[in-house]
Amino acid sequence: MSVHITSPAFKENAKKALADAPLQSALSKVGPGFIGRRTAAAGLLPEFDALRDSARDIKNHTLAHLDLYLERYETKVRAAGGHVHFAVDAAEARDIVTDICRRLGAKTVTKGKSMVSEEIGLNDHLAACGIEPVETDLGEYLIQIRGEAPSHIIAPAIHLNKDQVEADFRRVHAHLPPERNLSEPTALLAEARGELRQRFLQADVGITGANFLVAETGTSIIVTNEGNGDLTQTLPKAHIVLASLEKLVPTLEDVSQLLRVLARSATGQEMSVYTTFSTGPRRPEDVDGPGEYHVVILDNGRSGMLAGQLREMLRCIRCGACMNHCPVYHAVGGHAYGWVYPGPMGAVLTPSIIGIEKGANLPNASTFCGRCEEVCPVRIPLPKLMRHWREKEFERHLTPAPQRFGLGVWSFFARRGWLYRPATRLAMWGLSRLGWRAGRFSTLPLAGGWTRHRDFPAPEGDTFQAQWHARKAKRGQE
Amino acid sequence: MSSPSEKRPPSVGLFVTCLVDTIRPGIGFAAAQLLAQAGCEVDVPRQTCCGQPAFNSGDRITTRALAEQTIAAFETFDYVVVPSGSCAGMIKTHYPELFVGEPDWMPRVARFCAKVHELMAFLVDVRGLRAVAARYDGTVTYHDSCSGLRELGVHDQPRLLLQSVEGLELREMADADVCCGFGGTFCVKYPDISGAIVEKKAANVIASGADTLLAGDLGCLMNMAGKLQRMGREVAVRHVAEVLAGTGTAPAIGMARREGGT
Question: What domain of life is recorded for the organism (chain B) (predicted)?
Answer without folding.
Answer: Bacteria
